[in-house]
Specification:
Elements lengths: L1 H4 L17 E4 L10 H15 L4 E4 L9 H7 L3 E8 L5 E9 L2 E5 H5 L17 H12 L4 E5 L10 H6 L3 E3 L18 E3 L11 E6 L11 H5 L7 H22 L2 H6 L6 H11 L3 E4 H9 L1 H6 L3 E9 L8 H11 L3 E9 L3 H7 L3 E4 L7 H6 L1 H16 L2
Helix pairs in contact: 2-16
Length: 395
């Protein structure tokens, strides 16, 4: 009952006038482990319309370059294209990219993500990004002249060597044989030859879309920060860091000082260092949510909205560092739009939300404190949360 009575601040209006119709934009990311971004938008819309029948709601599922990026592009009108490529362990998988005109959205996790590993299996030293290179090649074959390369959720720490190999580069050991796949194999790298790279790459606008800005190696590099998430032990992290540093030195011998400079650049350490491989190809680094909002057509959708609902599974400190809700809220605030967020759990204080441009957050755990039940019943709980939003902000 409290929700229905909250802040009934409707201003008195002259007789015969009506409140302008409100239009809601739902621009939320996935709730990892329970709902896709598309499902989040569907459930929020259903809940809103139970309280405000006929409400105009525009759904624009968003992603920050990590897993779910292709699905977000398809929901925004891109065509889904599927192709058989190598998974992180070399087995063949069906992966997708999105295409609209000459613009492609390629998600490395589709080919080389953790979800491509068998349950409970990690391969920190041997997992390869070869399939991600095959995905990029498929986008080129489809006529793409502009490619948004979303990276995140990787199973790999090979510095993008596998991806570059699929695109025509050669990485050889002292006997002139290809080094084994994965970051561990780069320890035996003796020479690199990039002269065979696909010539079409030179005329393509390649954008590296990531929500992290780590360098390739060192205390904040790919192995140290993200290796443990991929099953790397402390010894594995040390091995991978040394191997990637060696890889960068060999590339410096092949293409000059640019290789060393790029290893220190923002985004080089993204997705196990595949960001470095993309930068070697000439990619421009942009925050994932920033480029995805452009590609998905967020600005015109925002113009049509009076209330924006964003969110993701967990609103926490990481959200504030380039995640989708922070990007959505920043753009909406700049346009003078009211923003609220939905989430599974909330781990940010009110001041941090306000600073990010989010007026209020609605966590599912307020309705169901048990996390297990919350995950299992996320859809119906989200509809109930959306009803609360409608009563508090729209009714």
């Amino acid at each position: 009952m409290a929700d229905a009575a909250v802040n009934d601040t409707r201003e008195a209006r002259p007789a015969g006038t009506e409140r302008p119709a409100r239009r809601v934009l739902v621009a939320a990311d996935k709730f990892k482990g329970s709902l896709t971004a598309v499902q989040v938008a569907e459930r929020v819309t259903a809940g809103l319309r139970r309280v405000v029948p006929g409400l105009e709601v525009e759904a624009l599922p968003v992603a920050d370059g990590g897993d779910g990026t292709v699905d977000a592009a398809v929901a925004a009108g891109f065509e889904r294209r599927e192709v058989r490529v190598a998974g992180p362990l070399g087995h063949e998988v069906t992966a997708a990219f999105a295409l609209r005109g000459e613009t492609a959205v390629v998600e490395m996790a589709e080919a080389s993500g953790l979800q491509r590993l068998p349950a409970g299996v990690f391969a920190p030293l041997t997992a390869s990004t070869y399939g991600s290179g095959e995905l990029l090649r498929a986008a080129l074959d489809a006529g793409a002249r502009s490619i948004v390369f979303g990276v995140g959720g990787s199973a790999t720490t090979d510095g993008g060597a596998g991806m570059l190999s699929a695109l025509g580069a050669r990485f050889l050991d002292a006997e002139g044989e290809p080094v084994p796949p994965g970051g561990g194999g780069l320890a035996g790298l003796a020479g690199a030859d990039l002269s065979g790279l696909d010539a079409r790459l030179a005329s393509v606008d390649l954008v590296l879309a990531s929500d992290v800005d780590n360098p390739l190696t060192g205390p904040t590099g790919a192995p140290a920060v993200y290796g443990p998430q991929k099953g790397a032990s402390p010894d594995d992290v040390e091995t991978l860091d040394a191997a990637l540093a060696h890889y960068a030195r060999v590339l410096e011998e092949a293409i000059g000082s640019r290789a060393a400079e790029l290893a220190e650049s923002a985004g080089a350490g993204a997705a196990g260092g595949i960001g470095y491989g993309a930068l070697i190809l000439g990619a421009r680094f942009r925050p994932g949510i920033e480029i995805m909002l452009d590609v998905l057509g967020f600005a015109p959708a925002l113009e049509r909205a009076s209330l924006v609902i964003t969110g993701e599974g967990s609103l926490d400190a990481q959200t504030l560092h380039g995640k989708a809700p922070a990007g959505v809220a920043a753009a909406a605030r700049a346009a003078g739009r009211e923003v609220v967020a939905v989430c599974g759990r909330l781990a940010l204080p009110e001041e941090a939300l306000e600073k990010a441009g989010i007026g209020r957050a609605y966590p599912l755990t307020e309705l169901e404190p048990d996390v297990g039940r919350c995950l299992a019943d996320a859809g119906s709980l989200l509809e109930r949360v959306a009803e609360r939003i409608a009563r508090n902000h729209l009714a």
